[in-house]
Specification:
Length: about 400
């Protein structure tokens, strides 16, 4: 039944009111749709802005990159949570056969191609398959995601070799030719006495572009000289720095190690059987000598330069079954500007190596420290001639054999 109402004075018609019987009494009736509540916000979106970064920092690098692709907001937050230093994915190295025991210091002369050992299962499996000519080169440096290789075939020490630079992540490569002869004015004077020592990666302009700088190190007339090559837009431009006349190389340059060490923004070249190292400041490109602690054990100067986990320069040694780590410091206990930060007897650690001689003298002859782990700076690489190459964790005091599936050592 519809009830009509009259028109109100000064107003419009009122809307008719209809009495609707229950839906069950109407034939072919349709029930009204259920009420829809407004959607709730995602749980993470209701969190304060200062909480989301704390969550993102606990994600692995792979998961953090995935989260950055979700939306613009997450991308901005993830960008602030990226590690300041590039993450360590693994190691490139050349496999070698285990060396013979002491008194017969021989290595297998066979050249093996460089391989990649991932740090853990989540790391990508990188390889050098994209550069087939890499088998004709030897790995010399790895820095900021790039590899620097020099030819396997020996070249005259008075000339610069070609350099191959590879980016395993993007499969980019660059072959750098030696510096032109006019790079140094009146170069024929120095070429008679020039001795090429080695090369290293200096810097990288952008992680996604093949734009970088390399440095070569030579001895010209008894003084060190740095050659810097800048690669960009598929071109390499060389410049030679002035001779470091304040640094005198008064010994045969043959004793320089061809591979340098990156630490605290500088490069260090060890000198075999010497109580000093050559230092190159990468900011000023100036050479100088650096003396290690005079109290280092042993007489053959088996020590290595490195960097501590908190970013300080250090010297490590494992001579006389004693592991020592010295850092730069002053005070009454300073030794050539170094102080002992860590010291431990590792004779019992050596006892866990099968077949290693128990005699202290024979152990001294066969054991030497090779390097400080660049990615995990609390670990050392130790070579035991005739018994393999090991990684030593100074926190847990455990040795781990570095061997490939074919039984060869990492080198």
């Amino acid at each position: 039944m519809v009830r009509k109402t009259g028109k109100k004075r000064g107003g419009s018609k009122t809307k008719p009111q209809t009495e609707t019987p229950p839906s069950s009494s109407l034939p072919n009736s349709v029930s009204p749709p259920p009420s829809v509540e407004p959607p709730e916000e995602a749980p993470i979106d209701v969190l304060p802005l200062d909480v989301i970064p704390n969550i993102f920092r606990r994600l692995s690098l792979v998961d953090l990159l995935r989260a950055a692709l979700a939306c613009h907001r997450w991308c901005r937050v993830a960008a602030r949570c990226l590690p300041r230093a590039a993450p360590l994915l693994g190691y490139f190295f050349h496999p070698v056969k285990t060396a013979t025991p002491p008194h017969i210091h021989q290595r297998d002369p066979t050249r093996y191609d460089a391989v990649f050992a991932p740090l853990d299962a989540s790391s990508p499996r990188l390889s050098l398959d994209f550069a087939p000519d890499a088998s004709r080169f030897q790995l010399h440096d790895c820095h900021q995601g790039l590899l620097l290789l020099e030819p396997n075939v020996p070249t005259p020490r008075s000339t610069h070799p070609r350099l191959l630079v590879l980016d395993p992540a993007t499969h980019r490569r660059a072959l750098l030719r030696p510096p032109p002869r006019d790079t140094v004015p009146d170069d024929h004077r120095w070429r008679r006495s020039r001795y090429y020592v080695g090369s290293a990666l200096l810097s990288r302009a952008h992680p996604s572009k093949l734009c970088f700088e390399v440095v070569c190190f030579t001895i010209d007339g008894g003084h060190p000289r740095a050659w810097v090559g800048s690669f960009d837009n598929d071109q390499c431009r060389w410049r030679a720095l002035p001779l470091a006349e304040h640094v005198l190389v008064d010994f045969d340059p043959y004793w320089f190690e061809t591979r340098g060490v990156h630490a605290v923004g500088k490069m260090y070249w060890h000198i075999c059987n010497s109580s000093r190292v050559l230092e190159l400041d990468l900011a000023t490109l100036r050479f100088s000598y650096l003396l290690p602690p005079a109290a280092l054990p042993g007489h053959h100067f088996k020590y290595r330069m490195g960097e501590t986990p908190d970013g300080r320069l250090c010297v490590v040694t494992v001579e006389n079954q004693l592991m020592q780590r010295w850092v730069r410091g002053g005070g009454d206990t300073s030794d050539n500007g170094w102080v002992v930060e860590q010291e431990m007897d590792i004779s019992k650690v050596y006892d866990t190596v099968p077949g290693l001689p128990k005699d202290r003298i024979r152990r001294k002859q066969s054991i030497m420290v090779m390097d400080v782990d660049v990615g995990q700076k609390w670990k050392l690489f130790i070579e035991m001639l005739g018994y393999g190459t090991f990684s030593f964790d100074s926190n847990t005091r455990k040795l781990h054999r570095l061997a490939t599936k074919g039984g060869k050592d990492s080198f």
